[in-house]
Amino acid sequence: MIQTAAPFERIRVRRFASAEAAARALAGCIVRELAGDPRLVLGLPTGRTPVPLYRALVALHRRGRADFSRASTFNLDEFVGLAPSDARSYGAFMQQHLFAHVNLRPDRIHLLNGRARDLEGECRRYERAIAAAGGIDLQILGVGENGHIGFNEPAAALVARTHVTRLTTATRRANADLFGGRLRAVPRDALSMGMATILHARRIVLLATGRAKAHAVAGMVDGPLTPRLPASLLQLHRHVEVWVDRAAAAGLR
Ligand code: GLP
Question: Based on CB atoms within 10 Å of each CB, which residue in 101, 169, 171, 224 is the most buried?
Answer without folding.
Answer: 171
